[in-house]
Amino acid sequence: MTLMIKRLSPADTGVMRKVNALFAAAFEDDETYANAPPDPDYIQHTLANPMVIALAAEREGDCVGGLVAYILPKLEQARNEIYIFDLAVSDTARRQGVATALINEVRMIAADVGAWVVYVQADYVDPPAVALYTKLGAREEVLHFDLTPLPRS
Questions:
Q1: What global pTM score does this model have?
Q2: Which of 44, 63, 96, 129 could pair with 18 as two cysteines, CB 3.0-4.6 Å apart?
Q3: Which CATH number does the domain 3-136 belong to among 1.10.10.1320, 3.40.50.620, 3.40.630.30, 3.40.50.10260?
Q4: Could you tell me which of 91, 42, 92, 99 has the C-alpha nearest to residue 69?
């Protein structure tokens, strides 16, 4: 059973829908990932953006993992960073190297685009994610704040 990691293109709308369904199940978050799915044109347009990295891990034709990351151009130096925003593996494929394969694909993409770092956030209440990211990289203790958009008056 070979694992295939695929970077999604605008032709992969259906696969992206499977990745979002996987995110909804893994994160137990239907409100974000399932209740208001974007239309195919939006998905195609977003997947065509070279700053968006969407990966699917497939085994035997089934989507067993997914990752979405963003290339962030920096201004303090002529370089990029890549932020892994979503990463999930199906229950049946956990502890089989799927997440590591997805992350390593992003790391190779990072080298291809000249990014100086790939970073990811983990919650303290998710020990498997913390253990995975600790195995693959250097840990930083940071605080994360969500700021609500403010309309212009």
A1: 0.84
A2: 63
A3: 3.40.630.30
A4: 99
Over residues 25-75, the pLDDT tens digits come to 988 889 888 889 899 999 999 999 999 999 999 998 899 999 999 999 999
Contact at 8 Å (CB) between 123 and 133?
Answer: no
- What are the residue boundaries of the structural domains of the chain, listed by start? 3-136
User: Where do we find the tokens 């956030």?
Assistant: 121
Instruction: Determine the Cα–Cα distance for residues 118 and 25; give it in Å rounded to an integer.
Output: 25
Contact, 33 vs 21, CB < 8 A?
Answer: yes
The vertex-71 CA angle with 68 and 74, nearest 5°, equals: 150
> What length is written for the chain?
153
Q: Which of 119, 120, 49, 47 is nearest to 80 (CA)?
A: 119
Question: Which residues lie below 8 Å from residue 52, measured CB to CB, with a gap of 6+?
Answer: 46, 68, 69, 70, 71
Question: From the CB of residue 75, how many other CB atoms can be counted at a distance below 10 Å?
Answer: 6
Predicted pLDDT at 27: 86
